[in-house]
Design a protein that fits this description.
3 domains; Rossmann fold; six-stranded parallel beta sheet; eleven-stranded mixed beta sheet; Dihydrodipicolinate Reductase, domain 2; binds L-homoserine; Alpha-Beta Plaits; alpha/beta
């Protein structure tokens, strides 16, 4: 049994942007961490691909090895921190840690959203601690508040801006009038985007994060593949102008809801009222708006990425495990074995902003209204913009079922007076 003053020994699996930030903070905040964790923290070994690769913070190269076994089989290590990202070899290493009954802290959203079930089942089997606060929302405390602080409530809805790159792009398009590709290049130059920006702009990153939030809030195993997903690459500067005119902002929202009809989970560009707290989240910041049955509305806001914010979330998990290292984990999460069930997007009702490029002649509006009427789609507002060859009808529907809206859209596309439907964006009502 370790003595109170013996250090908690850490094995770092990966030492890039986040891992080197963890190493840096363990040195910089040593005294505070020792108080919080009740024992000093000490990095014992670091697994890297290449000791000489450039990193934002220096780490001790004498602790580095390229051999996973040298880290995994070091008996002195108490807590392993996985910050490699991706599924391979992170999954194999994480399982090897847990099989040894050792504690795991990971920042890996793909790992938890794609393989959460086997991770949690292995941890339950061996009694190991697993924490992953940094996997969603970088430095913003989300997992522990949902799991512990709000453990006594029923979470009804979560709406989040959980991808900083897309929020940065939409902010620049809205405030600077940048095009989508100009704003994406800026986001890449600032280092916000993932190595493959498709993961950001197509909502893949946000879907993984929403799956994790759903698993925690709704006590079942949800996967990223269950989350309906649309990205932001088709948003046009005109849509942001129209949104502003109608009193909305456009955000890539991750939305999960649970009610008597079931659970829904979706990521798509969304118009929300400019009065909504999420509308004012600018740049690469993240925020998650939560509605609990008893607690009401809450919002969590902060830096959703970056070396030190993410490293902070990791160290919070390390502190939590260090304080409880000789006890079984407080949150065993055996519920992850129960598959989460998600409603089809076709059964979700929402409002839609739609732009139609039309032939500018008498009777066009009547034909359009006729198609919407045939499919039970009621219109809330209709505005014509431009005239002649640049005539566009911009409309917002009342709440309709996705299946009815899509049937109406197919009907509109086959009308000879509709040349193109360049934009369809869901509008969030509450
Ligand atoms: N690429 C992500 C983002 C950060 O833009 O928010 C890590 O999840």
């Amino acid at each position: 049994m370790a003595k109170a003053a013996d250090p908690i020994k850490i094995g770092l699996l990966g030492c890039g942007t986040i891992g080197s930030g963890v190493f840096h903070l363990i040195g910089r905040n040593a005294a505070g961490l020792a108080e919080a964790a009740r024992r000093p923290l000490e990095v014992a070994r670091i697994l890297v691909k290449d000791p000489d690769e450039p990193r934002p913070f220096q780490a001790d190269t004498s602790l580095m090895t390229t051999s996973p076994a040298e880290v995994l089989d070091d008996p002195s290590i108490d807590i392993f921190i996985e910050v490699m990202g991706g599924v391979n070899p992170a999954r194999e290493l994480a399982l090897a840690v847990l099989e040894r009954g050792k504690s795991l802290v990971t920042a890996n959203k793909e790992l938890i959203a794609g393989h959460g079930r086997e991770i949690m089942e292995t941890a339950v089997k061996t009694g190991a601690h697993v924490r992953f606060e940094a996997a969603v929302g970088g430095g913003i405390p989300l997992i522990r508040p949902l799991e512990e602080s709000l453990g006594g409530d029923n979470i009804l809805k979560m709406m989040g801006i959980v991808n900083g790159t897309t929020n940065y792009i939409l902010t620049r398009m809205s405030t600077e009038g940048s095009t989508y590709s100009e704003a994406l290049s800026e986001a890449q130059a600032l280092g916000y985007a993932e190595a493959n920006p498709e993961a950001d702009v197509e909502g893949i990153d946000a879907a993984s994060k929403l799956a994790i939030l759903c698993s925690i809030a709704f006590h079942a195993g949800f996967t990223a593949g269950q989350v309906y997903r649309e990205g932001i690459s088709r948003i046009r500067p005109e849509d942001l102008d129209n949104a502003r005119e109608f009193g909305y902002a456009i955000k890539l929202l991750a939305i999960a809801e649970r009610n008597e009809g079931g659970t829904s989970a979706r990521v798509h560009p969304t118009m929300i009222s400019r009065e909504h707290p999420l509308a004012s989240i600018a740049g690469n910041f993240n925020a998650v708006f939560v509605i609990g049955e008893s607690v009401g509305e809450l919002m969590f806001y902060g830096q959703g990425a970056g070396s030190l914010p993410t490293a902070t979330a990791i160290l919070g998990d390390v502190v939590n495990i260090a304080r409880n290292i000789d006890r079984p984990p407080a949150s065993a999460r055996s519920y992850w074995s129960r598959p989460g069930v998600v409603r089809s997007i076709e059964d979700i009702a929402t409002r839609y902003y739609t732009v139609l490029k039309v032939v500018d002649q008498p009777g066009v509006l009547a034909k359009i209204a006729g198609v919407f009427g045939e499919h039970n789609v009621s219109l809330e507002s209709v505005v014509q913009k431009g005239f002649g060859s640049s005539a566009q009808i911009v409309l917002i529907t009342h709440k309709v079922l996705e299946r009815d809206f899509q049937a109406a859209r197919d009907g509109l596309e086959s009308l000879d007076v509709v040349e193109e439907i360049p934009s369809v964006i869901r509008v969030e009502s509450d």
